[in-house]
Design a protein that fits this description.
5 helices, elongated
Length: about 110
C-alpha cells in the first residue's frame, strides 16, 4: 500500500501527468490525444503514460496501431483517503487553536 501511494504521488507530481489524468477523467484517449495539448513528442508522452501505468492510474490497451488509455480510479481514491486523514487532523488542530486565541464574549453586567 505504501509503495502504491508513493507511486501515485510521484506520478501526480508532474503537471503534464496531472493534466493527462484530468483529461482521462472525461473519456478514454489515445496517446496522441493526451500529447496534443503539450509541447512534447509522442515518445515523451509515452514515458509520462508509463509512469501513470506503473502507479496503476492509467491502463493502456492497443487497438490496431492506436494505444488507448483509460483512467483507473482506485489508486486515486486511496491517495484521497490518505490526504483526508490529514485534512481532518489539521482541521481539528486549527479549530482548537482558534478556540484558544479567540477571547470569550463579555457578559453584560446587569
Amino acid at each position: 500500500m505504501v509503495k502504491q501511494l508513493d507511486a501515485v504521488f510521484h506520478a501526480l507530481a508532474d503537471p503534464t501527468r496531472r493534466t493527462m489524468v484530468r483529461t482521462l477523467a472525461g473519456a478514454d484517449r489515445t496517446v496522441g490525444e493526451l500529447a496534443a495539448p503539450h509541447p512534447i513528442s509522442l515518445a515523451a508522452a509515452s514515458k509520462h503514460i508509463k509512469v501513470l501505468e506503473r502507479a496503476g492510474i492509467v491502463q493502456r490497451t492497443v487497438r490496431g496501431r492506436q494505444h488507448v488509455c483509460r483512467l483507473v480510479a482506485e489508486p486515486l481514491a486511496a491517495a484521497s483517503d490518505h490526504l483526508r486523514f490529514y485534512e481532518r487532523f489539521w482541521t481539528g488542530r486549527l479549530d482548537a487553536l482558534e478556540a484558544f486565541v479567540t477571547p470569550a464574549p463579555e457578559e453584560d453586567p446587569e
